Amino acid sequence: MSKSYNVAVVGATGAVGKEMLKTLENRKFPVKNIVPLASSRSVGKKIIFKGKEYPVRELKEDSFKGVDIALFSAGAERSKIFAPIAVKAGAVVIDNSSAFRMDEDVPLVVPEVNSHAMARHKGIIANPNCSTIQMVLPLAVINKLASLKRVVVTTFQSVSGAGQQNILELETQVKKLSEKETHYGLGEHIVPPDMVKKFQHQMAYNLIPHIDVFKENFYTKEEMKMVEETRKIMELPNLALTATCVRVPVYYAHSESVNVETYKKVTRAEVLENMKNFSGITVVDSPADNEYPMPIQVEGKDNVFVGRIREDESIENGLNVWIVADNLRKGAALNAVQIAEKLINTTREA
Asked: Does this model's pTM top 0.90?
């Protein structure tokens, strides 16, 4: 009889927590008991797992007794407090926040790229940033073919990456504007100031080139996450990488325009063939048929979708790649569950 596990989901009522529960169920993860945890505000709510109703419990120091695996998605501050407590209680923590990603003693893992790093975990395994996860799969393919020299990425990130309340804010703004009888002349597509709450600026019909706080170097924290996390995951500490992260009025799925310079020449045909054969990647690339990945098509899908692959004619060894993935699935919940799957499979093999 195969072993089953007691699994806690911290942040079970949030957008990513809900997706974690769904992913555990859909992938038939061997769950013995599910333990949904959240803040005191969520106590009394119910979650449905495998057709059964479970009450949400308040996250406390004694919440992890008997838990084997704890999936955390409740923010960095809670992770810093409760992840060590969970480890001390005997659980392995897979943390979706930024709390431990750059800790030298904590593996930062995308299973298709660097699952070997999990072997050195000391109770905590970090789940990377959503925008980093989807980028490193195609980069891993290119790096194997021609060795990465420089990467320039611009992201177009959906509002779901900022949490459930931000989804609702965009929805409210769009609804308000759609009710107006207007031809959308100058100024007619602007919502009242009291409808801008979670974002610093109106999100509907707008782009915000600012995700997370600005740092002293004028990059945002989100942009520097992509730089630092990519280097760690790919074990390329000196990789030249620069990022610009943009919030766009899309509900689900992040898109990325990535320009890559390599040390060796690699052709579009070579990249296409190798992308098609890489686990976790789906290639959608047929210019003649106007086929390429788009958020509306990728929403709810597990894989990272890649298209618009072309050789950069401005430099000798360059490529342009368009990457789209559902940020709540591969960008968060799915990657965390895949780490858990690798974890238990490694344990069984040992």
From this structure: yes
